């Protein structure tokens, strides 16, 4: 299967594509596409990889991914019920080459710049969510008008950037399959010890060539990426109110070989100790 690039099915004369996903898990292969993606998650949670960064997705998130920005959703295995997401796909030139260059719309330049890194809308109000949900029942012209309204709302809302790596990387099929295999293996085995030789074998490369390949495409070392993945999983466990697991146990559960290493890397990435994070997030 050619994972990258990913083709959004659409007819030649539609500039907006609306898609509703209601599945046990979201599509969980690393992919990128030429269209900008705006998604609203109604249910489902898990790990989110965008560009060079690992984070989490959860119900209520509104996420925007720019054109050709690699990303993957990995739904939590213990999620109850179906994962539900509404998405709009569009291309900046899909409305005409100069549509967004008009004086009336040029202030949206910041939206497209931030989309190239991917972002999460930090504070989405109920009115915005209702408008997004309404998209599925609207005809073409009404949907377009609603889309412009949503763009305006997003433009005036604070955002959390999801990635630091803004290089637009158009993967070949071989590169895309290789990166997908690496991410898929890490998402499934990050709780275990993963050696450089082991992950290089997954990529069908020598360890030296793999290190160079991974750094060029993510702007970080493989060890940095693996640490981020483990820390994000630890955050999920720490902020779960009914999880009484000791911090030392969480450290080993997430793949760390010592509590001191876990505490050090956690504070370096999150700015606070695991204990402080747990106290703050579960209050």
TrEMBL record:
Keywords: DNA-binding, Transcription, Transcription regulation. InterPro entries: Cupin_2, Homeodomain-like_sf, HTH_AraC, HTH_AraC-typ_CS, RmlC-like_jellyroll, RmlC_Cupin_sf, Tscrpt_reg_AraC-type_HTH. It comes from the Bacteria. The keyword Zinc-finger does not apply. GO terms for molecular function: DNA-binding transcription factor activity; sequence-specific DNA binding. The lineage of its organism: Bacteria, Pseudomonadati, Bacteroidota, Flavobacteriia, Flavobacteriales. PANTHER family: ARAC-FAMILY TRANSCRIPTIONAL REGULATOR, HTH-TYPE TRANSCRIPTIONAL REGULATOR EXSA. This is Transcriptional regulator. It holds the Pfam family HTH_18. Residues 180-280 form the HTH araC/xylS-type domain.
């Amino acid at each position: 299967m050619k994972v990258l690039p990913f083709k959004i099915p659409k007819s030649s004369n539609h500039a907006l594509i609306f898609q509703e996903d209601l599945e046990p898990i979201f599509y969980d292969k690393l992919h990128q596409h030429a269209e900008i993606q705006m998604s609203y998650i109604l249910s489902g949670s898990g790990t989110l990889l965008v560009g060079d960064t690992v984070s989490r997705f959860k119900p209520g998130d509104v996420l925007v991914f720019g054109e050709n920005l690699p990303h993957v959703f990995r739904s939590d295995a213990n999620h109850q019920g179906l994962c539900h997401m509404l998405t709009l796909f569009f291309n900046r030139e899909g409305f005409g080459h100069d549509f967004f260059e008009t004086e009336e719309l040029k202030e949206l330049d910041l939206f497209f710049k931030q989309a190239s890194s991917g972002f999460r809308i930090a504070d989405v109000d109920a009115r915005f969510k209702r408008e997004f949900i309404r998209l599925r029942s609207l005809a073409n012209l009404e949907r377009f008008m609603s889309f412009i309204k949503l763009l305006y709302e997003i433009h005036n809302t604070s955002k959390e950037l999801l990635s630091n790596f803004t290089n637009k990387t158009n993967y070949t099929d071989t590169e895309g399959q290789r990166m997908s295999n690496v991410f898929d293996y890490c998402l499934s085995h990050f709780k275990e010890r993963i050696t450089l030789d082991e992950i290089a074998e997954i990529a069908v490369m020598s360890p030296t060539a793999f290190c160079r390949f991974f750094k060029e495409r993510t702007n970080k070392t493989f060890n940095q990426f693996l640490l981020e993945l483990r820390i994000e999983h630890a955050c999920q466990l720490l902020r779960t109110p009914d999880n009484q697991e000791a911090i030392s146990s969480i450290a080993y559960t997430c793949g760390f070989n010592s509590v001191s290493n876990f505490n050090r890397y956690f504070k370096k990435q999150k700015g606070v100790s695991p204990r402080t994070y747990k106290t703050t997030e579960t209050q």
